[in-house]
Design goal:
The protein is built from 15 helices and 27 strands. It is an alpha/beta fold. The strands form 7 sheets. An 8-stranded parallel sheet has the order 1-11-8-6-2-3-4-5. A 6-stranded mixed sheet has the order 13-12-18-23-26-27, with helices on both faces.
Length: 439
């Protein structure tokens, strides 16, 4: 049977929004831009007040977060994306600190209400199923719990499988809009990123299951894995970097214990090539974030190798990844979900990888974290730490051994000062002095 749906306009659909409502927007490339525009027009006409908006990070404009909508829209995001960073730092928008794995639980438990879910889906198939395409994450939970579900049906949304498939009967209002999805293009890794990629790739064994984010370092790692065998993917997101490895047969999922032969992710960001790759592809499962990011599910695969980045680390191994001092820069995201999951996995490796210095040449390895910096990965969680100068395993090491190892991969220009700070902090112990002070 061919499933018939009735369309309305974006302007008509957003009339269900009323003062005080909580709205969920599907994230990353799937942000429903035509509904956002229509909602903001209603907001500009002051048709409602105190509407709370929730999402992970979105690509494209986020006009509802602009200062002129103060009192009309309040953005309380689950992650601070680049498009809302400035307004969040200046106090016009806010952030809910939450593990990515638990974003879905906020809705399912009722901790955060969901009155209206605004999502983007593929065209329905003959059985009436649509796909959430590139963004399942917490969106599925929002669809399950919302009073009203508005879906933009877009022919450019890939028909992805897994938890992404939902029946059109779960949706209340349909709007047609065939605007192509937002794409992300990444720059080629520079010399430092390539060195970090090489140091991470050296830690990856054949048969490993990989998690890595997007950006220059993950792409640099992936670029070095052409000679590997039987790699798998269980991640929160992937981008273009994995495609050459899939085409070569390097990534085939054969060594996985669960979802064997399948690539598992919860959202995607990349070029049109990635969206085309997951379209109608039974080898990719787009799953609920409560599944992809559950540390105990992650740990079911062997040799899980999780590579995450950081903004700063101190000499005891505390990792700041969400703020620059007191200014929120991103969010907790899935870092702890995967650091913990990888460390529970048989033969797993949790890796924190970052350049040793900022673009301005300031050491990202510090004696103590900048006041206000958020500890995302605690010193108890950290295992491997990688910079362009090498890789060190901090697991089971004392504070003094850690300091020595962390300093060994710092930028040479910062090592003397870090040595001094370590000596002042730990130097009353004879064996520490012996390791450090060069008489």
């Amino acid at each position: 049977m061919n499933y018939q749906i009735k369309f309305t306009t974006a302007e008509e659909a957003v009339k269900v929004i009323k003062s005080g409502d909580h709205i969920h927007l599907s994230s990353v490339a799937s942000a429903p831009q035509c509904l956002i525009k229509a909602m903001c027009e209603r907001g500009a006409n002051k048709e409602f007040r105190d509407v709370h908006i929730h999402h992970l990070h979105t690509e494209g404009p986020a006009p509802y977060a602009a200062p002129e909508f103060e009192g009309i829209f309040q953005l309380d995001s689950f992650f601070v994306g680049g498009n809302v960073r400035k307004v969040t730092q200046s106090g016009y928008a806010d952030y809910i600190p939450i593990f990515l794995s638990e974003t879905q639980r906020l809705y399912r438990s009722g901790a955060v209400p969901c009155n209206v879910a605004m999502i983007q889906v593929s065209t329905p198939d003959k059985h009436g199923y649509v796909s959430l395409g590139t963004s399942v994450d917490a969106t599925l939970a929002a669809v399950e719990t919302a009073e009203h579900v508005i879906a933009v049906v877009n022919k450019h949304v890939p028909r992805s499988f897994g938890d992404a498939m939902i029946h059109a009967s779960k949706i209340d209002l349909f709007v047609q809009d065939d605007t192509p999805l937002e794409e992300a293009h990444f720059t080629e890794p520079n010399e430092i990123e390539t060195a970090i990629g090489r140091n991470c790739a050296a830690l990856i064994e054949d048969g490993a299951t990989l998690q890595m984010g997007i950006g220059a370092i993950p792409n640099a790692v992936l670029a070095q894995l052409g000679g590997h065998k039987n790699l798998g993917i269980h991640t929160e997101m992937f981008a273009d970097g994995v495609l050459p490895l899939v085409e070569k047969g390097v990534i085939n999922g054969e060594a996985k214990n669960i979802d064997k032969g399948k690539m598992v992710s919860t959202f995607l960001m990349g070029s049109q090539r990635v969206y085309d790759f997951i379209d109608d592809n039974p080898g990719v499962l787009m799953m609920d974030v409560g599944y992809t990011n559950d540390p105990y599910i992650i740990a079911k695969n062997d040799r899980v190798t999780a590579i995450n980045s950081a903004l700063q680390i101190d000499l005891t191994g505390q990792v700041c990844a969400d703020s620059l001092g007191t200014k929120f820069y991103s969010g907790v995201g899935g870092q702890i979900d995967f650091v913990y999951g990888a460390s529970l996995s048989k033969g797993g490796k949790a890796i924190i990888a970052m350049p040793s210095v900022t673009n301005k040449g300031i050491s990202k390895i510090a004696p103590v974290l900048t006041p206000g910096a958020g500890v995302v990965t605690t010193r108890n969680h950290i295992h491997w730490f990688v910079t362009e100068h090498g890789a060190v395993d901090l697991y089971g090491k004392t504070l003094q051994e850690r300091a020595r190892l962390i300093i060994s991969v710092a930028d040479p220009s910062a090592q003397e000062e870090l040595d001094k700070a370590a000596f002042e902090r730990f130097g009353s112990h004879h064996h520490y002095i012996k390791g450090y002070m060069k008489c």
